[in-house]
Specification:
- The complex is a heterodimer.
- Chain A has 11 helices and 2 strands; from the N terminus they run ααααββααααααα.
- By secondary structure, chain A is mostly helical.
- Chain A has 2 domains: 185 residues, no CATH class; 70 residues.
- Chain A has a two-stranded antiparallel ribbon with strand order 1-2.
- In chain A, α5 packs across α6 and α5 packs antiparallel against α8.
- By secondary structure, chain B is an alpha/beta fold.
- Chain B has 7 helices and 8 strands.
- In chain B, α6 links the parallel β7 and β8.
- The longest helix of chain B is centred in the last third of the chain and has 16 residues.
- The radius of gyration of chain B is 17 Å and the shape is globular.
- Classes of the chains: A mainly alpha, B alpha/beta.
- The interface between A and B is medium-sized, with 16 and 24 residues.
- The complex binds adenosine-5'-triphosphate and magnesium ion.
- The site of magnesium ion has 4 residues of chain B, from α1.
Chain lengths: 287, 206
């Protein structure tokens, strides 16, 4: 059994993958596309928080909200300018796939030019270690977990208890009926892209507590959250959460147990799981 | 009140509706009958703004104002409400949430609550199902929710697309009573049905 510290590290990663995967599924359930630029919104969120905290001296929680608003706004712009057009009837799925892939390199390049290629770390936001007897957990890791929980609870409230959230759920379940009763599907698409990208951005901001930021930091989390989404079952929000938690923990525990080939082992596991259950854990079986 | 003039609906090469003229006056109960694929749903969707502009020719006026080309939401806001074919409930939302979605465009909470109460009086069975997910209900109960959701929008003109589909003769009979009840309150109604199921329905209010 790996020591508790390894599980905690895994849980920290789980937080990131879960938040990312949740945003990815939200976007997929309304727009019907995978946003391949998701990892770069994560990266941009990381930079916004970094500069807000270090250059502007804004408190971390507020910086996190700002990153959600700024990057969410950028995501809405991308929806309006790029995705809406490329997903209208007559365009195949490949054009929007190509466009969101192109945006990966656009945003990475822009971030490289604007912020430099070096790793940038915030000074420790929260020094100190919580003593748990046989082991210690740094307050920073606890902060990652707590902020993630707050974000997820906020998402639950938005989706289930607000009028916007109900319109979003209705649109994802039965778009024609939603529009028959006055929901503007176009507007919901823009909103959901904003929320999805804000989630990615806040995940990138939260990880800034324990890791440094750089223009390429979005790549691995993007792949991992994509895996989380597929394991959980494409389209299922519960699946995104469970898939994200599983991957984070597995990743950490496997890396501890067999340091060398850990990624090979992890991805083999994912493939085996998908062979056994192709629709993912919470996905509907194909008809 | 509602006027369709020379309406054509074409999906690519398929002509779904050819040169349709239809006038509906306030308080009317209009029944549109037609076989499978005759273009009944397409007609209602054209009125509701769900048919794409490029697929639609002709004019649709409501209260002297052109509504063809408006967004579905703008048409719903004018009180033209459709209860779509196959019910199209939000399956993972509760019955209460489904009904609330019907009132999406309305603001006044008190009046919405009053409408909710009216729907409960019309379909008392739904009262204890409010917290159930729509997909957990039986076909008949789902149809009640679909009609209730439509009524929550405070329709001036209610369009029902094959509401009796998939219901047993007994349930169909009960449904006919309910629709009659709504109609007798002065609601303007367009009802779409297939020939095969018309017997009972027409006997009531042909
Ligand atoms: N969105 C669409 N795209 C392409 N073709 C369509 C579309 N909707 C309907 N059609 C076609 O238009 C024709 C009329 O369909 P419509 O659904 O209006 O008929 P209907 O009278 O409602 O039939 P039913 O009794 O089966 O409900 C059919 O041939 C159908 O295949
Ligand atoms: Mg039909």
């Amino acid at each position: 059994m790996p020591p508790a510290g390894i599980w905690i590290d895994g849980l920290v990663q789980s937080c990131i993958y879960m938040t990312m995967a949740f945003g990815m599924v939200l976007v997929f359930s309304i727009l019907g596309i995978l946003n391949w630029t998701h990892g770069q919104f994560y990266m941009l969120g990381g930079f916004v928080v970094y500069y807000a905290v270090t250059a502007a001296g804004i408190p971390f929680p507020l910086s996190l909200l700002i990153s959600g608003a700024v990057v969410g706004g950028l995501g809405m712009l991308v929806e309006k300018v790029v995705i809406e057009r490329l997903t209208s009837p007559g365009y195949g799925i490949l054009s929007v796939t190509a466009a969101t892939n192109a945006l990966i390199f656009f945003f990475e390049g822009a971030a490289g030019m604007g912020f430099g290629l070096m790793n940038k770390g915030m000074a420790t936001v929260l020094p100190g270690v919580l003593d748990m007897g046989s082991f210690g957990v740094s307050y920073q890791k606890i902060a990652v977990i707590v902020f993630t929980l707050i974000i997820m609870v906020a998402m639950y409230i938005v989706l289930n208890l607000t009028k916007v959230g109900k319109a979003i759920r209705a649109t994802s379940q039965e778009p024609d009926a939603a529009s028959l009763y006055g929901v503007s599907v176009k507007w919901v698409r823009v909103i959901i892209m904003g929320i999805g990208c804000a989630l990615a951005a806040m995940a990138g901001g939260v990880i800034g507590i324990v890791q440094s930021v750089n223009p390429f930091m979005g790549r691995i989390p993007m792949i991992m959250s994509l895996l989380a989404v597929v394991i959980g079952g494409l389209g299922s929000l519960t699946g995104a959460i469970v898939g994200g938690i599983m991957l984070g923990l597995l990743n950490s525990v496997i890396a501890y147990s067999i340091s060398y080939y850990s990624e090979v082992a992890l991805f083999m596991l994912v493939i085996i799981l998908l062979l056994i259950r192709p629709q993912g854990l919470f996905g509907a079986a194909p008809k | 009140m509602l006027e369709l003039r020379n309406v054509w609906i074409k999906y690519g090469k398929t002509v779904a509706v050819r040169k349709l003229n239809l006038t509906v006056n306030k308080g009317d109960f209009v029944t549109i009958l037609g076989a499978n694929g005759a273009g009944k749903s397409s007609t209602l969707n054209a009125i509701s703004g769900l048919v794409k502009f490029k697929d639609l020719r002709g004019e649709i006026d409501y209260k002297g104002e052109k509504i063809s080309g408006l967004k579905p939401g703008a048409i719903a806001a004018r009180g033209l409400i459709q209860i779509p074919e196959g019910r199209k409930l939000f399956p993972l939302m509760t019955v209460r949430e489904n009904l609330e979605m019907g009132a999406y465009l309305r603001k006044d909470r008190k009046q919405i609550a009053a409408s909710m109460e009216k729907v409960m009086e019309l379909f008392p069975l739904l009262r204890e199902k409010l917290s159930a997910k729509a997909r957990e209900l039986s076909g008949g109960q789902q149809q009640m929710v679909a009609i209730g959701r439509g009524l929550m929008a405070e329709p001036e003109l209610l369009m029902l697309d094959e509401p009796s589909f998939g219901l047993s003769p007994l349930l169909r009979q009960q449904l006919a009573e309910k629709i009659k009840e709504v109609s007798s309150e002065g609601e303007t109604i367009i009802l779409v049905e297939q020939n095969a199921r018309l017997g009972l329905m027409l006997a009531k209010y042909g």
